[in-house]
């Protein structure tokens, strides 16, 4: 690689994400779709946690995006509904790459939420339906008892999706690609746009 040139091409950022994501799938030992999701309260108090990417591409929504699912009554769900903006971070150590994505959120349709919820293993459906995510739990057995009660109530087939279990689409206004280089002379390129249908602009950033 020529150290005097950027390793990050000027191209469509969705296409570049797809390329990097595909390469990460070949080398990451666990969950290449794992991403850090950062949210904040209306007062600006931040919170971050790992979630899984469950849909992405330029054809999603009005201007393309990245989809994840969650319990909307969890801490992150409450923060999202109070402040419909978030940031994502992918870190693929095997590839020595990171991608940061920022933008507003919209909730997926009930049909989309149903389809994804029922695509999950039955045990995962039960675990999600039984959980008051982020709420205090007196002891683990209480949760396990709720799981057992749902298994008994629904002995076969899909579990009804709880109405508060849903998904969100982040429509990016900024996507930044980071590539590790020797001696911490890293390579960064940031793509930005004003709205979902606007053209992307880009610039290199100092590391």
Structural features, described:
The protein has helices spanning 13-27, 75-82, 110-117, 122-130, 140-153, and strands at residues 34-40, 46-52, 55-57, 65-71, 85-92, 97-107, 165-170, 174-179, 187-192, 201-205. Helix 4 crosses helix 5. A hairpin with a 7-residue loop joins strand 3 (55-57) and strand 4. With 207 residues, the protein is of the alpha+beta class. The mean pLDDT is 95. The chain contains five helices and ten strands.
Please outline the helices and strands:
Layout: H1 13-27, E1 34-40, E2 46-52, E3 55-57, E4 65-71, H2 75-82, E5 85-92, E6 97-107, H3 110-117, H4 122-130, H5 140-153, E7 165-170, E8 174-179, E9 187-192, E10 201-205
Antiparallel strand pairs: 1-2, 1-5, 3-4, 4-7, 5-6, 6-7, 6-8, 8-9, 9-10
Binding site for FMN: 49-54, 69-70, 75-76, 98, 133-134, 178, 188
Pathway: Cofactor metabolism; pyridoxal 5'-phosphate salvage; pyridoxal 5'-phosphate from pyridoxamine 5'-phosphate: step 1/1; Cofactor metabolism; pyridoxal 5'-phosphate salvage; pyridoxal 5'-phosphate from pyridoxine 5'-phosphate: step 1/1
Organism: Qipengyuania xiapuensis
